[in-house]
From TrEMBL:
<keyword id="KW-0378">Hydrolase</keyword>
<feature type="domain" description="Glycosyl hydrolases family 2 sugar binding">
    <location>
        <begin position="14"/>
        <end position="174"/>
    </location>
</feature>
<dbReference type="Pfam" id="PF02837">
    <property type="entry name" value="Glyco_hydro_2_N"/>
</dbReference>
<dbReference type="Pfam" id="PF00703">
    <property type="entry name" value="Glyco_hydro_2"/>
</dbReference>
<keyword id="KW-0326">Glycosidase</keyword>
<dbReference type="InterPro" id="IPR008979">
    <property type="entry name" value="Galactose-bd-like_sf"/>
</dbReference>
<comment type="similarity">
    <text>Belongs to the glycosyl hydrolase 2 family.</text>
</comment>
<dbReference type="InterPro" id="IPR006102">
    <property type="entry name" value="Ig-like_GH2"/>
</dbReference>
<protein>
    <recommendedName>
        <fullName>Beta-glucuronidase</fullName>
        <ecNumber>3.2.1.31</ecNumber>
    </recommendedName>
</protein>
<dbReference type="Pfam" id="PF02836">
    <property type="entry name" value="Glyco_hydro_2_C"/>
</dbReference>
<dbReference type="InterPro" id="IPR017853">
    <property type="entry name" value="GH"/>
</dbReference>
<feature type="region of interest" description="Disordered">
    <location>
        <begin position="580"/>
        <end position="611"/>
    </location>
</feature>
<dbReference type="InterPro" id="IPR006101">
    <property type="entry name" value="Glyco_hydro_2"/>
</dbReference>
<dbReference type="InterPro" id="IPR006104">
    <property type="entry name" value="Glyco_hydro_2_N"/>
</dbReference>
<feature type="domain" description="Glycoside hydrolase family 2 immunoglobulin-like beta-sandwich">
    <location>
        <begin position="176"/>
        <end position="267"/>
    </location>
</feature>
<dbReference type="InterPro" id="IPR006103">
    <property type="entry name" value="Glyco_hydro_2_cat"/>
</dbReference>
<dbReference type="InterPro" id="IPR023230">
    <property type="entry name" value="Glyco_hydro_2_CS"/>
</dbReference>
């Protein structure tokens, strides 16, 4: 689905702001909302109000506002686009249902031309449902208390924020228009190759032009598909982004009836042996798992936090992040494109693991993959999530790998039957990018059922925190044994997609005391010593970039505190240690002269002496 853009043939109206708001109740789309509440868009609604009944509400919530169609749109199609409605959305125009969508982190739209008129006003109502079940992605369970309250439980360790967390748009497009654009790039010595495919709403001549960063034409062709070549190409590189643009024009004779411009970067991605290559050069991931999470806004997109977070990524020497555990706002992806940050793009498939449920509750775990738990209907919802993720993000040069699930029970019976069709689907939709999943600590190289299906082994490991807590010597031995087992069995690139320790800022100790700033730093140092000894290792993503909100739990004090930065983005001591290490690495795996301890001295703030 193409992102709405202002072009010579399209206009765009942003509908963000304050909307009338209500939770529950009768069907409010039949008339004006009977509520004095107002909610901000974009924002999650949970933390906006002081009423706990709103924060803990399970079910539908309603947003409403009046919208006027620009008077110059009389000959245009009028489109309404919702960037995200978590986790299900319904859109009504003057009481008429015009769109429905399931999936909380990808966009949907409706052609509302038949229901509105140019220059006229209409009532727009959007319903958002936060319910999670065993057939949603992510999954969850709804129970009813003795006093009749509906409660939502789920298996992911972040708060189930809901609402219109991203923008809502009204836009125009011509009757005959560009529907989709797919761009696949490559490098042939100093020449860039650009394979393109254009879908139009009706058969029509198409002209495409590649524009460089100055707006100059560097290649052109006619037709809905083909391959263009850019001599003396400037590649898109990690830390050195360069973007071209594909100008697509739909023609009627000499007249341009629709114009759409899609930015792109020329680069290649490849897994070769135990190396991860970008533009044919080995790449070492340094960075984080992140969350779209800020105070008050919840998961609401905020450009100020976007800019500041990327400034912190640059300051600390991070070159990448994973969109844990859902697709992030498109503005984030575009910013990564423009600033050369590498992205592992993940679906919202987190919580497909009932072994975790058993570990947290003490009751015997249920089988994860079964008709009664996560079966065929769940897998089809998962497949839809993959389709929508790739359809939205396929042209972003920053995206170098698809992650189709986080911490599934890949060691259980039924895992292969569940995941093999999803891997095949992902490769069919995009054969150009590697595919991965993030493994849970229960899944080891001896019992994992699906690792051979994937290109890169992404491991979530917490030795020294959940296992061997406070005993870093034992944790180091466990970790190295674990990683060498994966390396020896699969001969694929390995990266740590999660490792971290909860840390209360300002808590200190001279001993290895969990929750202290010193322990977080020592824990990370231990992990890095092991990483540097594994030849197949290609990256490290600390969990987490910043502290974030979670559901209620006695093991959480106002959320997850594994952030290297606090929730308001203040650095903990570990941030400075990571900065020393990552600035030195510069996107490359430590060389053998650093693995003997030279780098670790720098991490502790000690002078580094030549060997």
């Amino acid at each position: 689905m193409l992102k709405p853009r202002s072009t010579p043939t399209r206009e765009l109206v942003n509908l963000d702001g304050l909307w009338r708001f209500s939770v529950g109740g009768d069907q409010p789309w039949t008339g004006p909302l009977d509520s004095a509440l107002e909610a901000a868009v974009p924002a999650s609604y949970n933390d906006l109000f002081t009423d706990s009944a709103i924060r803990d509400h399970v079910g539908w919530a309603w947003y409403q506002r009046e919208v006027r169609v620009p008077r110059g749109w009389s000959s245009e199609r009028v489109m309404l686009r919702v960037d995200a409605a978590t986790h299900e959305g319904k859109v009504y125009v003057d009481g008429v249902l015009v769109a429905e969508h399931v999936g909380g982190y990808t966009p949907f739209e409706a052609d509302i031309t038949a229901h509105v008129g140019a220059g006229q006003e209409f009532r727009l109502t959007i319903g958002v449902n936060n319910e999670l079940t065993n057939t949603t992605i992510p999954p969850g369970t709804i129970t009813v208390t003795q006093d009749g309250r509906r409660q939502q439980t789920y298996l992911h360790d972040f708060y189930n924020y809901a609402g219109l967390a991203r923008s809502v748009w009204l836009y125009s497009r011509p009757a005959t228009h560009v529907q989709d654009v797919t761009i696949v790039t490559g490098l042939d010595a100093g020449t860039g190759t650009v394979e393109y495919s254009v879908q139009t709403s009706a058969p029509a001549p198409v002209r495409v032009v590649v524009l460089d960063a100055t707006g100059a034409s560097v290649a052109a062709a006619d037709g809905t598909s083909g391959t263009l070549r850019i001599p003396d190409v400037t590649p898109w590189r990690p830390g050195a982004a360069y973007l071209y643009a594909l100008l697509v024009e739909v023609l009627d004779g000499d007249q341009v009836v629709d114009s759409y411009t899609e930015p792109f970067g020329v680069r290649s991605v490849e897994v070769r042996g135990t190396e991860f290559l970008i533009n044919g050069e080995p790449f070492y991931f340094t960075g984080f798992g992140k969350h779209e999470d800020t105070p008050v806004r919840g998961k609401g997109h905020d450009d100020a936090y976007l800019v500041h977070d990327f400034q912190l990524l640059d300051w600390i020497g991070a070159n990448s992040f994973r969109t844990s555990h859902y697709p992030y706002a498109e503005e984030v992806m575009e910013f990564a494109d423009r600033h050369g940050i590498v992205v592992i793009d993940e679906t919202a498939a987190v919580g497909l693991n009932l072994a975790v449920e058993g570990g947290l509750t003490g009751v015997p775990p249920r089988p994860t993959f079964s008709p009664e738990t996560f079966g065929e209907a769940t897998r089809e919802a998962h497949a839809d999530a993959i389709r929508e993720l790739i359809a939205r993000d396929k042209n972003h040069p920053s995206v170098v790998m698809w992650c189709i699930a986080n911490e599934p029970s890949s060691h259980e019976d039924g895992a292969r039957e569940y995941f093999e069709p999803l891997v095949e689907l992902t490769r069919k939709l995009d054969p150009t990018r590697p595919v991965c999943y993030a493994t849970v600590i229960f899944a080891r190289h001896e019992n994992d059922r699906i690792a051979d299906l994937f290109d890169v082994l992404c491991l979530n490991r917490y030795y020294g925190w959940y296992v061997a807590t406070g005993d870093l010597a034992t944790a180091e031995a466990y970790l190295e044994h674990d990683l060498r087992g994966w390396a020896g069995k699969y001969h694929k690139p390995i990266m740590m997609s999660e490792y971290g320790a909860d840390t209360m800022p300002g808590l200190h100790s001279v001993w290895d005391t969990p929750w202290t700033e010193e322990y977080q730093r020592a824990y990370l140092d231990m992990n890095h010593r092991v990483f540097d000894r594994i030849d197949a290792f290609v990256g490290e993503h600390v969990w987490n970039f910043a502290d974030f909100q979670t559901s209620h739990g006695i093991h959480r004090v106002d959320g997850n505190k594994k952030g290297v930065f606090t929730r308001d983005r203040r650095p903990k001591a570990a941030a400075h240690a990571l900065r020393a290490r990552w600035k030195r690495l510069g996107g490359r795996k430590p060389s053998s002269d650093l693995q003997s301890g030279q780098l670790r001295g720098e991490e502790r703030g000690q002078p580094v002496r030549p060997s």
